[in-house]
């Protein structure tokens, strides 16, 4: 079983993808002023069941929607589709992103993040994101860089699912205990 876990993070520009990635990988996040122009790779090592895993998040530029994404999704373990709760256009593009990603990486490997959920002025009605995720057969998470534990919990849950899937494919034990991460509970 490979000890590398690779996850793409995609969505419209300004949905908060870079902030999400930086928050999880570096413990930073707020005030990421730069727009991602080329795919950015961020790495973090974690210990799970006494094994070291290298987590790589690929921060895909929002303007990539017009480009051929096939190369960006080969050999990844999962994709996170991100929308900004205050940006209706970013929400409406999730179906398009999903349509491009699913044929490449398959069902059960795509996750939807409703980002910036701390904002008061929301353009997306309560429950719409969850309903869309259910319709697309994706897992749904609400995240905010102002509450970094929401990002850490969501990504830990995704990483746990990927490890379990890899373990099942290799007939290894499915128990997962994060030793170096905060003990956030995950409903996975």
Q: Which helices and strands appear, and what pairs or packs with what?
A:
Layout: E1 4-11, H1 17-26, E2 40-48, E3 51-59, H2 70-73, E4 78-84, H3 88-92, H4 94-105, E5 110-115, H5 128-135, E6 139-142, H6 148-169
Parallel strand pairs: 1-3, 1-4, 4-5, 5-6
Antiparallel strand pairs: 2-3
Straight-line distance between termini = 21 Å
Strands, total number: 6
| Main sheet strand line-up | 2-3-1-4-5-6
Largest sheet data: 6 strands, mixed
Order of helices and strands: EHEEHEHHEHEH
> Which band does the percent of strand residues land in?
15-25%
Please state the average pLDDT score. 82
How many individual helices?
A: 6
Helix content: 25-40%
Give the structural class: alpha/beta
So what's the overall shape? globular
Uncertain runs are none
Q: What integer value in Å does the Rg equal?
A: 16 Å
């Amino acid at each position: 079983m490979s000890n590398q876990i690779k996850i793409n993070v995609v969505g419209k520009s300004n949905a908060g993808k870079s902030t999400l990635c930086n928050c999880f990988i570096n413990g930073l996040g707020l005030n990421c002023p730069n727009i991602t122009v080329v795919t950015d790779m961020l790495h973090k090592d974690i210990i799970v069941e006494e094994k070291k895993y290298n987590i790589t998040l690929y921060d895909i530029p929002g303007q990539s929607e017009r480009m051929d994404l096939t190369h960006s999704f080969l050999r990844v373990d999962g994709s996170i589709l991100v929308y900004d709760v205050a940006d209706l256009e970013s929400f409406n593009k999730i179906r398009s992103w999903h349509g491009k990603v699913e044929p490449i990486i398959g069902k059960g490997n795509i996750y939807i993040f409703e980002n910036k959920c701390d904002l008061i002025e929301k353009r997306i009605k309560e429950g719409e994101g969850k309903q869309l995720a259910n319709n697309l057969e994706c897992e749904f998470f609400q995240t905010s860089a102002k509450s970094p534990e929401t990002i850490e919990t969501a990504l830990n849950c995704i990483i746990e699912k990927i490890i379990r899937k890899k373990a099942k494919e290799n007939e290894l034990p499915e128990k997962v205990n994060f030793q170096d991460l905060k003990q956030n509970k995950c409903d996975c």
